[in-house]
Amino acid sequence: MTANANLFAALRAAFPADLDAAAIETDTGLVYSWRDLDRASAMLANLLASLDIPAGSRIAAHTEKSVEALLLYLATLRAGFVYLPLNTAYQQAELAYFIGNAEPAVVVCASRNFPWLSKLAFQHGVAHVFTLDDDRSGTLLERASHFSDQHEIARRGPDELAAILYTSGTTGRSKGAMLSHANLLSNAQVLKDVWDWQPGDVLIHALPIFHVHGLFVASHGALLNGSKMLWLAKFDPRAVIERLPRATVFMGVPTLYVRLLQEGGLTRAACARMRLFVSGSAPLLIETFRDWEDRTGHVILERYGMSETVMLTSNPCRASDGERVGGTVGPALPGVGVRVVDDAGANLPADEIGHVQVRGPNVFGGYWRMPEKTAEEFTADGWFKTGDVGRFDARGYLTIVGRSKDLIISGGYNVYPAEIEGYLNDMPGVAESAVIGVPHPDFGEGVVAVMVPKAGVTLDADALVAALKSQIANYKVPKRAFVVADLPRNAMGKVQKNLLREQHQGLFAR
Ligand code: MLC
Ligand code: AMP
């Protein structure tokens, strides 16, 4: 019989022999052993298996970060279902879309959201809604407590789905990137090797677990190495610094590094035991890269990835693999193809800027129930178009210089202008709008809205932004909004966002 390609089987096989050793220590002082992870994921997997839901069912989680939320992910893999994580900041309209589109069989949510979210889920035909709070309470755990703590890992083929991650589209609605067991496992194995995970490594886990960075890169990294995690439910720079002397690996989006640098406690002495600082999900400013080295003596390793592809490139970890170059995202990972092409699709030589395209065992199978969108995003010869613009240097290090997709990355979260413009344009008195990202000292980019009123209407920009706050995730809400008579347009009638960005570029300057 062929080996079970279920990702959980590989993670479980990497648990240390001493199952009573600490696997996760939380910020509230709880310690979970490896045996706890095994037993609790088995109980949850048995609960899911008992629901009599079809193979391939999606299990949607809209839960605060907690070890139990991670266990729900592991249990979903273990039982062979498909995990669908949802940002806790999403509000009603956003969730209605995700649930309607993904048609999950199970929704797990915070109990405070149960009254409206369960109604919404039932309207969309979801059969089971459980609650899970960040204090180990909720119906999910109550129900699971009645099940056996023994569970045989479901057999899955390498190409069967493990997770769907929604990532917004440049024009319309969000698209669900379908990731298989092999996509996730192959990437985790490559990172284990190239980032030189070692016995005794300890990871500070400070990222949310509903996106690739915190859920896959960080959690898989520690689990596949049998490494302990120091778990923070929420990023807090002082709590991270306090844990540095007991840790060896930290992963963050650039905003986390910017905020850590503002703390006096970040010193060489505090980082003396650390082995690796990884940054990604958004461009790391060269100043942050340099300030970090000055303050801590450590060179941040920047890597590049996407929801559709997990990790693609990485600066070297071992000195023998080369130096880490600030401002670059390093060479392609082993087994991953990365090319830079011109508009006609021809490969460009080093130093020339073009479209970044990728392929490899890590690249997703397509967008959930969107075959046309999937076809559009792949070239005829099977490369995925990332929408990022970059160039290679002579050594094969990639630098991301921009994006051809209209996307803002704020504090590591993606904001699609078209989505926000859609909400603004629907508001009374708004004729049209343009949403742009401009440099922001904390979030990298800050969201700014520019609106044009309908004839004879006086718009109150602040009131419109306040109204938006009740509709969409808070990080998508523009930090500043302006009312103007017209939007700048080119001869083709297209809004010239570059001019708006230039005009507002100093808006958030310190
Ligand atoms: C919070 N706020 C943000 C924001 N996060 N505004 C813009 N951008 C953000 N990212 C705002 C809220 O709207 C709120 O405003 C106020 O800040 C306080 O909210 P909070 O939740 O208390 O904020 P905080 O805890 O400080 O969160 C900041 C953060 C968080 C940087 C810790 O955003 C974060 O964890 N980011 C990481 C995202 C991530 O994991 N990305 C990986 C994607 S994977 P108000 O006005 O409502 O008070 C990926 C692929 C890859 O991209 O390559 O990895
Ligand atoms: P997401 O859709 O959340 O997976 O975001 C993926 C996008 O984040 C990529 O297409 C890039 O635009 C961006 N990104 C990720 N890592 C980096 C990085 N190190 N530098 C620049 N951009 C990055």
TrEMBL record:
It comes from the Bacteria. InterPro entries: AMP-bd_C (IPR025110), AMP-bd_C_sf (IPR045851), AMP-binding_CS (IPR020845), AMP-dep_synth/lig_dom (IPR000873), ANL_N_sf (IPR042099). Residues 419-494 form the AMP-binding enzyme C-terminal domain. Gene3D superfamilies: 3.30.300.30, N-terminal domain of ligase-like (3.40.50.12780). Residues 21-368 form the AMP-dependent synthetase/ligase domain. GO terms for biological process: fatty acid metabolic process. GO terms for molecular function: medium-chain fatty acid-CoA ligase activity. Belongs to the ATP-dependent AMP-binding enzyme family. This is Malonyl-CoA/methylmalonyl-CoA synthetase. It comes from Sphaerotilus mobilis.
